[in-house]
Amino acid sequence: MEVEYAQIRGFNYQPSYAGSLQQIWACFDRPVWEREVAWSRRFGTNMLRVWLDWHAWIALEEAMLDALDHALAVFSANGIRMMPVLFNRWNDDRLPMGMVADCDIAASDYAFGKFEPYVAGLMERFGDDPRVAVWDLCNEPQSPYLEGALNFRELAWLARVAGWVRDRSDKPITIGTMTADNVRIYAPLVDAISFHPYTLKPGEMDALCQSHREIAADYGKPLICTEACKGSFDDQERGRQARDDVEALQRHGIGWLLWQFVEGRFITGSRQRPDDNALHPRQGYMPFILSNGSTRPGHEWLESV
Questions:
Q1: Which residues of the chain have pLDDT under 70?
Q2: What is d(CA 92, CA 255) in angstroms, rounded to the nearest whole number?
Q3: Fewer CB in 10 Å around end: N or C, the chain?
Q4: What is the largest CA-CA distance in the chain?
């Protein structure tokens, strides 16, 4: 099944019960997924980006893959495809929720063999699964912001991961990069270029969309936004900011997966667990759907976009 990148619309989804990546899979709760994923249909959602977890696989192995199979069944029942994220390299200093740490990469030889069984297990079960649309190899790798040899090692690691996936799956791959130089570093590895344009001011999103369309054109690859929309405790203010972002993405013909779908325990999912990716310091509160299933005030416009 081909991916129409410009037509992608949806969200990043962490189920409301989970405060960490490992908890998503170790405490998998299918009824929660069934209830919450169905809520996304009011926005015309056709894809959701879901973070997997290498540490959960180390702990659970096939049980984690069984949980992913259940999650994919829920998506299929709702007419939605998944963009699974294999690894994560972003973390919040105050509310850590799980990542591949610098030491995980630095302590491995350049074969990076400790990661391969996880990737191989995923691909054996789901490499040809039509419910999977795109493999996102990693959320926000940190080059060129790392020090010394880690910049090179991180790129070498993801090049190795890309090879393992390509050997076992015909699905397109992306990497959930941030903006500018961070996007260019990983662009040669992917089939579709992702960017995360979090903006502060009206008009800023248009400039970011244009500059990243130019990057994608340089590599002859499609472009997708896999995170956007800064947070705020003020529902109406956040709704206006999100609307500006989405309308700019639509003007530039860029498909989008917004951050984040539902209120819950994951970072930025509640007013008690915000981060600093916000319009005001430490107000990174970002859900579009509240815990009772209602659309967050100020965000109702998205139901008719």
A1: none
A2: 27
A3: N
A4: 51
SS3 128: coil
At 103 the pLDDT is: 95
pLDDT at 183: 98
Task: Give the strand order in the sheet containing 193-195.
Answer: 173-176, 135-139, 81-88, 47-51, 9-12, 255-258, 223-225, 193-195
Domains and CATH numbers, the chain: 5-304 (3.20.20.80)
Two tokens at 84?
């699974």
First to last CA, the chain: 25
How big is the CA angle at 160 (ends 82 and 10), to the nearest 5 degrees?
20
Q: Is 1 exposed, middle or buried (0-12, 13-18, 19+ CB in 10 A)?
A: exposed
pLDDT tens for residues 192-249? 999 999 998 878 999 999 999 999 999 999 999 999 999 999 999 999 999 999 999 9
One-letter amino acid at 198 equals Y
Q: Residue 108: its pLDDT value, please?
A: 87
Model pTM?
Answer: 0.98
- Three-point CA angle 176, 55, 13, nearest 5°: 45
